[in-house]
Amino acid sequence: MNSAQVSIGIAFIAGLASFLSPCVLPLVPIYLGQLVGQSIYQATERQRELSTRLVTFLHAAAFVFGFTLAFVALGATASTLGSFLQEHQVALRQIGGVVLVIIGLHLTGILTLPFLYWQKRFEYHSARPGYPASFLTGVIFAIAWSPCIGPILGSILVLAASAATLKSGVLLLLAYSLGLAIPFLLLGLGLIA
């Protein structure tokens, strides 16, 4: 077994561990409510008997695809960014030092930076839930809960950043996403009896 296979196995186990983390596990009832709501809304009376389970599973798959796409994008970015950071280490340290001094001056009140007070909000209220809403929920889940699962995801991103190729980094994040996805998909399958 080579180190790439071990890393992919570790990434998969890290995904499973992320599902059981104190940040993700409490979200399961919300996830299940979203799945049931989407499935029941979309299914007609005739479809409810035969395909509610399929519709629920397809919403679960759209949700999983959303967070997988976001995590893989993070992995690809980490791989590319890792090599860029390594090549430009000295210049980035100098730029980082200047930025820290400017932010320090702002925090002390010596310098006021108005753009640091800007706020942007985005609200999405789906009038008719569908697969795009489940996909978007998955993307938002990945982005919003990344800090919460940060220690686990961060270690996988470090592995991806130090991977030899972009493909290796993407594979690590795919394995992580698969580990996180399996419990969500199983919940989607077992939801409607």
Keyphrases for this structure?
193 residues; mainly alpha; globular; 76% helix
Polypeptide structure, described:
By secondary structure, the chain is mainly α. The chain has a domain at 3-86 and 145-190. Helices cover 76% and strands 0% of the residues. It is built from seven helices and no strands. The protein has helices spanning 3-19, 28-42, 45-87, 89-108, 131-145, 150-161, 166-190. The longest helix has 43 residues, at 45-87. The chain is globular.
Q: How many extended strands?
A: 0
Question: What does the largest sheet look like?
Answer: none
**SSE arrangement, N to C:** HHHHHHH
**Which class of secondary structure composition applies to the elements?**
mainly alpha
Residues in helices, as a percent range? over 70%
Q: How many DSSP helices?
A: 7
Helix and strand arrangement:
Blueprint: H1 3-19, H2 28-42, H3 45-87, H4 89-108, H5 131-145, H6 150-161, H7 166-190
Helix pairs in contact: 1-6, 1-7, 2-3, 3-5, 3-6, 3-7, 6-7
Give a short synopsis of this structure.
This protein has 193 residues and is an all-alpha fold. Helices cover 76% and strands 0% of the residues.
